[in-house]
Design a protein that fits this description.
By secondary structure, this protein is an alpha/beta fold. Helix content is 46%, strand content 13%. Bound molecules: adenosine-5'-triphosphate (ATP). InterPro entries: AAA+_ATPase, AAA_lid_NorR, CheY-like_superfamily, Homeodomain-like_sf, HTH_Fis, P-loop_NTPase, Sig_transdc_resp-reg_receiver, Sigma_54_int.
Length: 455
């Protein structure tokens, strides 16, 4: 097969795919497979030819090899990202070249295929790419309706990134403080991705007892252990075709991290008690409020798994860095809480919220408003209804320092602030706050009493 423009077939409204590969037999294989799927393909053998096709046509998908005679496939990925962002592009990488695949995903590739190309995988990839919504414009509106609210530059950037990530199959690591919207962002990525018809399965990795982890994640066969009286599917099976959201991923024990890495690499799962592995197609989005890189440095998280999960990082900004969004969030949350009959918010209360540091982020704002709505008089939320932790104000937090107090007073103030922040973060749940602070429940209770903290 020659690789010039003459090769283009006449086509009606068939979806078009641009194939870029310098090997004639691979071009032919791809061309034929796409034709059988009811698609039409243009084939290019070089970066220059691909550029020519792209300038002349709109494509529903581009499949490109990574090594081309006059350049790298990644150039095409970048060019498409800049000039033709509606076209998903997938790269074909040499066998075992994970780094290339990761580089392409980071540069904006939708997905990758490893050589030798497995036709089943190719068909799956093509179907996913063609089921993507054609316009990215729709996502911003959709993200707003999905409640990722805010007009600040920081949250606008997050929405934009969510839009781009929804058009990719890359693993995403969502970082950010507790309550900053990590799960909300992960749900949005899934909802606007080619996987949206399949389930989004959220898993709190910190909440599963260690001895049950393997069977919960991978399922088990009847008779695998006492009590296994029938076959059961795990989280991976439940998320097949969809997205598995690994929340608090830093809490996974090391042994489980090894098993997870294997599943991600092999794209296969073996149930507990089974002899064969089953192929599994799952996109992984992970998150933790901790600094995952720190966990790697301390040896608590495997570096190889870290790089597998953190192909692209989405950073959720803390609420205190986007104070301008508070009025909008307050209005939307009060409306939701009030369910048709929302209380009003006094300007002084809004001012108090606008200068508060929100250690528990949007979740804390929700809790504060829910409590205030229930307790306020005359359906008007006043500053005293908010019960803001007094030391949680920004100016005070920034000021820090000793201010002429004795060492004991200083220590008490620091302790008090840490406790108040932990209580606020956990919606005043003492057990959870104690866990967050790394002290026992009894120790926390004693400190609360000693410092005269009122909840
Ligand atoms: N930008 C936002 N607009 C509206 N609501 C938001 C926004 N961000 C977060 N929320 C709301 O705040 C709450 C906490 O969000 P979410 O559970 O996504 O946070 P998280 O970062 O995953 O928390 P954690 O670290 O504790 O798991 C949810 O009820 C969510 O709907």
């Amino acid at each position: 097969m020659s690789v010039n423009r003459v090769e283009r077939r006449p086509r009606g409204e068939l979806p078009r795919v641009l194939v870029v590969d310098d090997e004639a037999d691979i071009r032919e294989l791809l061309d034929l497979t796409l034709l059988r799927m009811g698609l039409t393909a243009d084939c290019a053998g070089t970066v220059a030819e691909a550029k020519g096709f792209l300038a002349a046509e709109r494509y529903q998908l581009c499949l490109t090899d990574m090594r081309l005679p006059d350049g790298e496939g990644i150039e095409i990925v970048r060019l498409i990202g800049e000039r033709y962002p509606e076209t998903p592009v997938a790269v074909i990488t040499a066998f075992g070249s994970t780094e290339n695949a990761v580089a392409a995903l980071k540069a904006g590739a939708f997905d990758y295929l490893a050589k030798p190309v497995a036709l089943e995988q190719l068909r799956g990839l093509v179907k996913s790419a063609l089921s993507l919504p054609q316009s990215r414009q729709t996502l911003d509106a959709a993200a707003r309706s999905g409640n990722l609210l805010g007009e600040s530059p920081a949250i606008t950037q997050v929405r934009d990134m969510v839009g781009r990530l929804a058009r990719s199959q890359a693993p995403v690591y969502v970082s950010g403080e507790s309550g900053s919207g990590k799960e909300l962002a992960a749900r949005l990525i899934h909802r606007h991705s080619a996987r949206s018809a399949a389930p989004f399965v959220p898993v709190n990795c910190g909440a599963i007892p260690e001895n049950l982890m393997e069977s919960e994640f991978f399922g088990y066969r009847k008779g695998a252990f006492t009590g296994a009286d029938s076959d059961r599917e795990g989280f991976f099976h439940a998320a097949h075709g969809g997205t598995l959201f690994l929340d608090e991923v830093a809490d996974l024990p090391l042994l489980m991290q090894v098993k997870l890495l294997r599943v991600i690499q092999e794209k296969k799962v073996r149930r507990v008690g089974a002899t064969v592995e089953e192929p599994i197609d799952v996109r992984i989005i992970s998150a933790t409020h901790r600094n995952l890189k720190d966990c790697v440095d301390k040896g608590a998280f495997r570096e190889d798994l870290y790089w597998r999960l953190n192909v692209i990082e989405l950073k959720m900004p803390p609420l205190r860095e986007r104070h301008e969004d508070i009025p909008l969030l307050v209005a939307a949350l009060v409306e939701r809480i009030g369910d048709g009959n929302p209380p009003r918010v006094a300007p002084e209360a809004l001012h108090a919220l606008s200068t508060y540091s929100f250690p528990g982020n949007v979740r804390e704002l929700e809790n504060i408003l829910e409590r205030a709505s229930a307790l306020c008089a005359d359906a008007l939320i006043r500053p005293e209804d908010l019960h803001l932790a007094p030391t949680g104000h920004c100016d005070e937090a920034v000021e820090g320092g000793r201010r002429g107090e004795t060492l004991d007073q200083h220590m008490d103030r620091v302790e008090r602030q840490a406790i108040l922040e932990a209580l606020a973060k956990t919606g005043f749940n003492r057990t959870a706050a104690a866990r967050l602070l790394g002290v026992t429940f009894r120790s926390l209770r004693y400190r609360i009493e000693r410092l005269g903290i009122e909840e």
